[in-house]
Each structure stands twice: as structure tokens, then as C-alpha cells.
Design a protein that fits this description.
single chain; about 220 residues; about 60% helix; about 5% strand
Length: about 220
């Protein structure tokens, strides 16, 4: 008999998929997202410190990119990735949540190696907005996210991994919405002067690689 707590949802080809009980999805999400946080806060600061000790830095961006304006209102699109971060248990079963978490952890480790091997500070001249609340908001961002650790963009990579996973459990309409959301996040990384074009391309490539590798390891539930 089908569990009364289970819920149907759309699969990749429009067919209904039965979701596991909410408690099982939430438990898996909490455990594995805690693991992601531990990996991130172990790797990211260490990679930044090691990269800062390097004597040679790369500048893989075009001069034209430095003319991209800083638009403080795009802060909200940039930070909307944290809304994406809480959506997976609404769409994915525990095996898929675990697979997504493993892809995140692997992406963080690979990105950390890239940050150290290829230290590339952003080329924008960082300046805090004068008015509130953006002055405080960007001061916090710039404090916790320095100009290194840019290639690949983990912000773009993580957004892509979320949407690649969610897209397989979404209706055609939702997949269009995910794509539009991803486009806004990508644009925001440049408009708030956090990333350049190469960072974005590298972030997408890393996400695709991790998504492919994770799917090869664990079949869909």
C-alpha cells in the first residue's frame, strides 16, 4: 500500500513520481546539508588563505568586463541562491538528495584545488554603496567573500547543480522558471562585481561534470 505521507510529483518526462514521506526527505536533507556546510567551511577559507600566499596571480578577464556597471539592487538575485538551497527536499527523494549532496561536496573540493592552483582575483574595484541597507549588506559579502576564490564560480556552480537536480523532477513550466532563475543569478554575479565571464563558464562546466559523475554513481530513485 502506498504511504499516505507520500506525494506525487512530475518526473523528467512528465510522468508522476511518488515522493518519499516528508520526514525521510527532511532528515536526509538536514544530515547531508550539514555535511556540505562542514566541507565548505573547511575547504573555502583554507583555499583562500593558500591562494593568498601565492606570488603569481592570474587575471583571466577582458578589459571590457570591467566596464560592467555595479548595480546594488541585483544583490537580491545574487542571494536568491539561498532560497534555492531549501527547495530540494520538496522535489527530491532521499537517494537523490544524497547524490546531490555528494556532487556539491566534490565540486567544493575540486574548486578549492582550482582556487589554489589558479589564484585569480576579481578585476573590479570594490566600493561599498553609500546608502542603506546596501552598504551593510555588501560590507558583509565583501568581508566573507574576498576577491580571490573566483575561478570557478562556486556561486554559479551551486545554482546550476540545484537546478539540474530540480529540473528532473519538474513540470515543463517549472523547468522554464528554473532556467530563468539561473539566468538571473548568473547575471547578478557580474552586476554585483563578484565574478567574470570565465568564472561563470568554469562554474557551469564544473556543475555539469559533477552532475554527470553523480548520476553515473547512483541511479534515480
Amino acid at each position: 500500500m502506498q504511504d499516505e505521507a507520500a506525494a506525487p510529483f512530475f518526473g523528467q518526462n512528465g510522468g508522476k513520481v511518488v515522493l518519499a514521506p516528508w520526514q525521510a526527505r527532511l532528515k536526509t536533507f538536514a544530515i547531508w546539508w550539514t555535511g556540505i556546510a562542514l566541507v565548505f567551511y573547511s575547504v573555502y577559507p583554507l583555499a583562500y588563505w593558500l591562494a593568498s600566499q601565492r606570488t603569481r596571480f592570474y587575471r583571466p578577464f577582458l578589459a571590457a568586463e570591467l566596464r560592467i556597471p555595479f548595480v546594488q539592487e541585483w544583490f537580491w538575485a545574487y542571494m536568491s541562491i539561498y532560497v534555492l538551497a531549501i527547495l530540494p527536499p520538496f522535489f527530491l527523494n532521499p537517494p537523490e538528495l544524497r547524490r546531490l549532496a555528494r556532487a556539491f561536496m566534490a565540486a567544493i573540493l575540486v574548486a578549492g584545488l582550482c582556487f589554489v592552483a589558479f589564484p585569480a582575483p576579481v578585476g573590479y574595484a570594490r566600493a561599498l554603496p553609500s546608502g542603506e541597507p546596501y552598504h551593510t549588506l555588501f560590507r558583509v559579502i565583501f568581508h566573507f567573500d574576498g576577491p580571490l576564490n573566483s575561478v570557478p564560480s562556486l556561486h554559479v556552480c551551486c545554482a546550476a547543480l540545484f537546478l539540474l537536480a530540480l529540473g528532473r523532477r519538474s513540470s515543463p513550466f517549472l523547468r522554464v522558471m528554473w532556467a530563468a532563475w539561473f539566468f538571473l543569478i548568473v547575471c547578478s554575479t557580474m552586476l554585483v562585481h563578484q565574478h567574470h565571464v570565465l568564472d561563470i563558464v568554469a562554474g557551469i562546466a564544473l556543475a555539469l561534470l559533477m552532475h554527470y559523475c553523480s548520476r553515473r554513481k547512483v541511479p534515480l530513485a
